[in-house]
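Exercise 3.2. Students should predict the tertiary structure of the chain below and write it as structure tokens, then compare their answer with the key that follows.

Predict this chain's 3D structure.
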Amino acid sequence: MAKVEDRTYLAADGTELPVRIYTPAGSGPFPVVLYFHGGGWVIADLDTYDATPRALANASGAIVVSAHYRQAPEYKFPAAHEDAVVAYQWTLANASSFDGDAERVALAGESAGANLAFNTAVAAREQQLALPVHMLLVYPVAGSNLSTPSYVANAKARPLGKQEMEWFVQQVFSNEDEVKDPRIDLVSRTDLQGLPSATVITAELDPLRSEGQQLARNLVKAGVKVDAVDYPGVTHEFFGMSAVVTKAKQAVTRAGKDLKAAFKADSARATGQR
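Answer key:
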């Protein structure tokens, strides 16, 4: 990285939370990717997920803003989802202060963070905020059914299996009805029209594989441009291991290519409008 900077933003309840800004080599203003880390909305932080933002910044040529959020069990659903939208608003408002282009902002996340990225795009559409130019959804939490084919096949997978997901559910939600909230059960949503293009990455040995693939199919049916790719022989959390896992390096390269294309297309549209 040419530069890594730590800042803070105020969460939805006024709590001060960290953001880490990764700037690649080159001259700006740079496009921006707002990234949310995984951890089931319970564990992990910016340090745990330091590798992915670095890799994405290098692969996409964009500044990556990695934003933390309030976590369960102290802060239950929908605290993290509320913070994600606030982090997006903060990024739009402050992009110029770190040499970013507020008119070219994408959203990205892994696992629970991918769910936050998707929901932030929906919130931007519904609240008439500037729409992100792309969504990078890496093995997203996208459903409430823990009996899908991939849950059955990968019930005892590591590092994430069915038992671990059940534990996250117990920590995050106050009751069973909340799990069926449209912000969690993305595959049941019927309002996917008008969302930005998406890259959806899934892993073969991952209980979240089925719901991620279903979300990709649903987006395509809604007219959203989607690049969906499933990587064989790898598990949940493989994406951040590009230094040692070949398929992770391939996935990051593909994600970077898609982000570059989305930023370029948006610039072309903006130029044409002017």
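Discussion points: DSSP finds eight helices and eight strands in the chain. Residues 25 and 149 are 43 Å apart (CA to CA).
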